Every structure is written in structure tokens, then in C-alpha cells.
């Protein structure tokens, strides 16, 4: 059974609206400032975890001791 032109036009319009909405959402998600902000927030969150924070403090202390020993020797 053939579809009438009004139904086809409504389907095309609905597809256009959905495509426009999808493109708007992609443009928001792909915004470079937003990507940088999200990455920064993720890195800061990871660095503030106790296991990571104390590991970095330990590594920094070892490096500082090695540098001081090298300078003193």
C-alpha cells in the first residue's frame, strides 16, 4: 500500500528535526572549551584521590632527596 505524501512529508520533517537536535548536541559536546574543562576536572579529581596524592608526594620526596644528595656530593 502506497503512503500518501502528507505522511512522507511529516516523516521527513521529523527526521530533519531529530538530525538538527543531534547536531546541536554534538556541537555542545565537541566544544573545545568544554572538553578542556571536563578533562581538567577529571585530572584534578584523580590527583585528589588519597592513593594518587600520597604516591606523588612520595615520589617527589625521593626525587628531592636524590637531587640534594647529588648537589651535596
Short summary:
The protein is mainly alpha-helical and 73 residues long.
Overview of the molecule:
The protein is mainly alpha-helical and 73 residues long. 88% of the residues lie in helices and 0% in strands. The chain contains 3 helices and no strands. It is rod-shaped, with a radius of gyration of 28 Å. The mean pLDDT is 92.
Furnish the topology, listing elements before pairings.
Elements: H1 5-29, H2 32-47, H3 50-72
InterPro entries: DUF3618
Organism: Rhodococcoides corynebacterioides
Pfam families: DUF3618 (PF12277)
Please describe the structure with a list of short key phrases separated by commas or semicolons.
73 residues, mainly alpha
Q: Give the strand tally.
A: 0
**Main pleated-sheet profile:** none
Regions with pLDDT < 50 over 5+ consecutive residues?
Answer: none
User: What is the count of DSSP helices, taking H or I runs of 4+ residues?
Assistant: 3
- Compressed to H and E, one letter per element, the order equals HHH
The N- to C-terminal Cα distance equals: 92 Å
Strand content: under 5%
Helix content: over 70%
Q: Tell me, rounded to a whole number, the average pLDDT.
A: 92
Rg from Cα: 28 Å
Principal-axis shape: rod-shaped
Structural class: mainly alpha
The oligomeric status of these chains comes to single chain
Amino acid at each position: 500500500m502506497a503512503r500518501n505524501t502528507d505522511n512522507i512529508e511529516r516523516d521527513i520533517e521529523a527526521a530533519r528535526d531529530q538530525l538538527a537536535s543531534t547536531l546541536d548536541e554534538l556541537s555542545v559536546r565537541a566544544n573545545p572549551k568544554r572538553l578542556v574543562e571536563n578533562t581538567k576536572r577529571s585530572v584534578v579529581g584523580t590527583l585528589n584521590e588519597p592513593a594518587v596524592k600520597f604516591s606523588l608526594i612520595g615520589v617527589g620526596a625521593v626525587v628531592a632527596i636524590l637531587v640534594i644528595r647529588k648537589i651535596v656530593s
